[in-house]
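Researcher: If only I could read backbone structure tokens as easily as an amino acid sequence. Walk me, if you will, through where the backbone shape changes along the chain. I have put the entry right below:
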Amino acid sequence: MHISRPRSILLAGAVAVTLSATALPAAFAAPSSTAVISEVYGGGGNSGATLTRDFVELANAGSAAYDLSGFSVQYLPGTPSAGSLWQVSALTGSVAPGGRYLVAQAAGTGGTVALPTPDATGTVAMSATSGTVALVSGTTPLTCKTAADCAADTRIVDLVGYGSAVVREGSGPATGASATASVARGTSLADTDNNAADLSAGAPTPVNAAGETSGGSGPGDPGNPTEPGTVRVHDIQGTTRVSPLNGQSVTGVPGIVTGVRTTGSRGFWIQDATPDADARTSEGVFVYTGSTAPSVAVGDSVLVSGKVDEYYPSATTQSITEITAPRVTVLSSGNALPAPVVLDAASVPDAYVPSAGGGSVDSLALDPSTYALDLYESLEGSRVQIADTRVTGATTAYDEVWVTVKPNENPTRRGGTLYSSYTDQNTGRIKVMSLDTTRPFPVANVGDELSGTTTGVMDYASFGGYNLQATELGTVTDHHLQREVTRKQRDKELAVATYNVENLDALDEQAKFDTLAAGVAVNLSSPDIVSLEEIQDDNGAVNDGTVGSEATLKRFTDAIVAAGGPQYAWRYIAPVDGKDGGEPGGNIRNVFLFNPERVDFVDRAGGDATTPVTAVRTKQGVTLSASPGRIAPTNDAWADSRKPLVGEFRFHGKTVFVIGNHFASKGGDQPLHGRYQEPKRSSETKRVKQATEVNTFVKSLLAADKSAQVITLGDLNDFAFSPTMDALTDGQVLKPLITTLPAGEQYSYVYEGNSQTLDHILTSPGVLRFDYDVVHINAEFADQASDHDPQVVRVDVNAPK
């Protein structure tokens, strides 16, 4: 899914400042010899003006590049009123030693000459004759409105008051500003903290970081060049994940348009038809047009001017190298496109990504012959092609499908790709999307084939990482994947199932109830006990204090009867409002359904949302202090998370304890494809605590009766090879049944093309004979009632010891 991305608002106007890497001055009385505002012009677009926009120019008289990340230029009217506020324009990038940095501000209706390409853009309409501009370390608006108060604010690097400005440095403001004149420092950039002495009026002379000036002087025409500049796409992309030109302006970058995106993050891709010899440097790049639909077509030969930017979809993802605020000259149309790079089992490496010891891989030199993610990064923005690929992740609601270019990489029995360890990533997975919005996206299930060739541009997104934005999409060959139906339990077998029903509540459409009900009655063959996860309160996300689920469960159990199943009874403990996590207002909880014709529930009073259940030793064996009950519900392991539900059942004269679980989600973990390698799994800490609590409770049952039959099950949100599972099985008190299946069947969930296991059933040593099945009815299908597959275990409770 390529999310429509938040962007810094494009601003309109410009400011010039000399910057320094030295410490900030404590007050105006300590002049800066390096960091100053070099020119201010507020007459852009006014009557009589030549330039169309206001600007502020910054300059760096220091000997090292000055980093502007997190800085801002701020403006205050010359005579501020009580309601006057400082207006902020955020800055990015840096200023080279001796260089300039141009901040464009608001445009007017007058003037005929555009500024050179700005390095930052704001929306501030500055006065032509009087105002104050400050260069500030930070983006929080200043609050000072007098010269004395501003002199005491150590965030201010430099300040220029002009005209009749009340807030200024020294004895008076710089004078002479008008619709046709700016105030600027001399060539020495001297700063004596006296605006009147340091700046003088004259014709505006804006200069950007590339050395361009209005009228086209400098390296290339900043307007509409007809000849290529000196920078090529591979110069922009460089040999690492971050452009060596990040934050800099470029002019006349040549390329052929290879793809156009008209929705979401609008823009287009260009690719240089004359590549260099370095396999690490991509020849393609995305040109981001923001809210404006691109006016180019595939096959156009263009020259692009703009600013290079590394856009991070989130704090933990890799970046996308882009040209922003573009100006485009179309030289010709209908040109042949560069040949695509073929991605297949032979070309994609088996290693996934280099290690950075948990740090960022941004600065590591790419090694595309060794690492799959390095290969994909070396092709970012370039044309690629795949052919006859197996579908490993079904078509989603966001019109995307996962395929693998490695047909023999960890295949599952039903056509997916198994995720089997933290160190063995599936390198052949690629997410496919389409740039053609005129045709419906194909619907595919796991195991189908995306046949023929699919060609497009390599892109990157926060969800899923590298993806192919198709300009030519193959066709789906249906391999007719079938939903499974498990066998019916025998009379002597107790069938216990787990099913995550994905935020089910009484306000859902009847179709959802009917499909989930058929899954229980038909596909699971009506188990005796069903432990449900993600049952919400009766009005779902409505946050009004409702915590009961009676209406939801009645609709669900009635639908099961209509689907041919038994009339289930239910037990649950309603959570304290807002204390169990999940969708706000939903009050998610675990629930037991049971068939009273086959199994008895032992009701024992005392269980509530905050009282912990305990094991009670009796002459007849172990019992629960309350049934149903909750495990350590006030322990911080369960803060803002679902509490395990424990029930005591009787079947054919035997007691069976069932523990329904829904552990904390993986939200907050760093992605497999992200910038930090190896990724941190921060959410794991909480699940390990939760698993330890459940393990401790199971041990208490077994301490009272070592032959107690305990079934622990549910959505544990973790893998069989995880520390969570290690904590849950500590002391060999529980056996994870997923590991008893053949390797190609050990999954119940599909995420980003990986077939994996988040749902589990575990049994205590007292369970001697069982038959276990993951019933695949959802996760591999485009049409799914839940994103989880249910599981069932059939236990012979009277198996001889």
